[in-house]
Amino acid sequence: MANETTAAAMRGESMRKGPWHEDEDERLITFVKILGSRRWDYVARISGLKRSGKSCRLRWVNYLRPNLKHGRISAEEETIILKLHEKWGNKWSMIARRLPGRTDNEIKNYWRTYIRKKAVIQDHENFRFGEDNDKQIFLFQGDDSNSYFETYNGDNYNPCVNISDTKNSSYASAAVVSDFDLIVTSTSPYETRLSDWISEFQSEIKSEEELNTTNSCYCYPTWFSEENDLWGCSDTLWNME
DNA sequence: AAGTTAGCCAACCGCCACCGC
DNA sequence: TGCGGTGGCGGTTGGCTAACT
User: Fold this and answer.
1) Is A70 contained in some domain?
2) For the range A78-85, what are the long-range contacts, defined as Cβ-Cβ under 8 Å and sequence gap of 24 or more?
């Protein structure tokens, strides 16, 4: 761990990092056959690989272990992943145990690249109008140039308000928001991404405001007010409880 | 043909739980 | 009982490559 590396450094060893070479793989396989796939620190030391035990374990589990399947996830596997994720959430190792030959890392990567993307697209295709003040609301602009808001319930973003529908809105209009699409759907911790986004959004909006373009429209969610402003990052947007 | 962007995936990092001393 | 070492896990990063402009 930090300490594994530190310990190695204290022994005067420099740890290798980065991609594994073929000869390292061969050596690791040999020593795992002899010593077993348990005491990784021991395997790392005895084998003479200048890798941490953790790194050895990871390489073995994700790449060298026998009976690993490499290649595309099948439709059946995808179905299983979807079902189990729905049931267990991001318990990648649990899900992986139900998919022989697949690693948690592989499933995690797959989820991030394919399934999530699909889910987002599906959301957008099926988006329905509605309003739910108990949820957090975010501004989007889709491909079809319809701006709308989405709610976040802790797991998903669900479209809810078409802001072009001014009759229905407690949202004031003032300036156009350009080219926003799927801004809040990324997978990093929510607050971090959101605050990054807010910063970018803020500068973009402000510059647009300075231009004072016609055909423009700011859209404020219901919790927005002079005292409680979006850019001041106050209150409900960051309060997920 | 060269530069840029997006997608993919291997590997790393940080946290936590467990275990033995 | 507390502490250090270790393994496991989920989140994140960075590099490679293919696709696009």
Assistant:
1) no
2) A78/A110, A78/A114, A78/A115, A81/A107, A81/A110, A81/A111, A81/A115, A82/A115, A85/A111, A85/A115
